[in-house]
Amino acid sequence: MSLEIIEVTKRFGQATAVDHLTLTVPEGEMFGLLGANGAGKTTTFRMILGLLLPTEGVIRWQGEPIDYSKGHLIGYLPEERGLYPKLKVQEQLLYLGRLRGMKKTDILPEIDRWLERFHIRDYANKRVEELSKGNQQKIQFIAAVLHRPKLLILDEPFSGLDPVNVELLKEAVLDLKRNGTTIVFSSHRMEHVEELCEHVCILRRGRAVVAGALRELKRSFGKQILVIQGD
Ligand code: ATP
């Protein structure tokens, strides 16, 4: 197992955002975290990333606690997009790649490859704020994967994208998976998860109400699984 979340709880004062959550994500798999707004998905991600400390429980990568001083293991596409609007696309990505310890000579061809793949090469020298929301989201995705992380966390990666861009992003995600990246992504849309994931967990008020292999869950719950994810 590459990512293990063991009996993890996160409390904010009296409120419990994540409640004794246990999940395991095998290496190279794509894992779907489902749940309505406020179910605890983002809080779980922020704990995996080391941005929040669990109140209780442990998170491990390949059997060890995650060493956050090595910032290269994880890539993160946050739900709230966090680009610098005044920077040009290429400057922005170059800056983020450098932050992750990449060499300029390695970053530039990688940026080029991704911009080409997402059909936005002409925007390399435009300021981020000049791009549409969908194109900004693609830049944010590139920022998450530029350093080739082993573990990729995608918080609602398809929200706000038109169908063409959803397909582009899905193909990119599938390619990363084929290359061995372990991917955890959240969605409140069952169809994306069904298409991409072998294992899922449905969170409700911080608790895993259903977890396991999607194929098995569908066999056991049938269409009810669509009902379970709502709150
Ligand atoms: P969404 O899709 O709306 O982001 P989510 O499943 O990601 O939902 P979280 O953002 O993890 O849910 O929130 C889980 C619960 O924890 C919510 O009730 C939220 O209000 C609460 N919460 C999250 N962050 C904090 C915080 N910093 N302080 C207090 N409560 C918080």
Can you put this structure into words, describing what you see?
The protein has helices spanning 41-48, 89-99, 104-117, 133-145, 163-178, 190-196, 214-221, 224-228; strands at residues 3-12, 15-25, 30-34, 56-61, 64-65, 74-77, 151-155, 182-187, 199-204, 207-213. It is an alpha/beta fold and 231 residues long. Helix 2 (89-99) crosses helix 3 (104-117). The site of adenosine-5'-triphosphate has 12 residues, from strand 2 and helix 1. Adenosine-5'-triphosphate (ATP) binds at residues 12, 15, 17, 35, 37-43, 79. It comes from Geobacillus kaustophilus (strain HTA426). Belongs to the ABC transporter superfamily. This is ABC transporter (ATP-binding protein) (Na+ exclusion).
How far is the N terminus from the C terminus? 30 Å
Rounded to an integer in angstroms, the radius of gyration calculated over CA atoms is 18 Å
Spell out which ligands are present: adenosine-5'-triphosphate
Beta-strand percent range? 25-35%
Biggest beta sheet attributes = 6 strands, mixed
Number of helical runs? 8
Q: Averaging pLDDT over every residue, what do you get?
A: 90
Domain ABC transporter: 3-230
Protein name: ABC transporter (ATP-binding protein) (Na+ exclusion)
GO molecular function, one term: ATP hydrolysis activity
Family: Belongs to the ABC transporter superfamily.
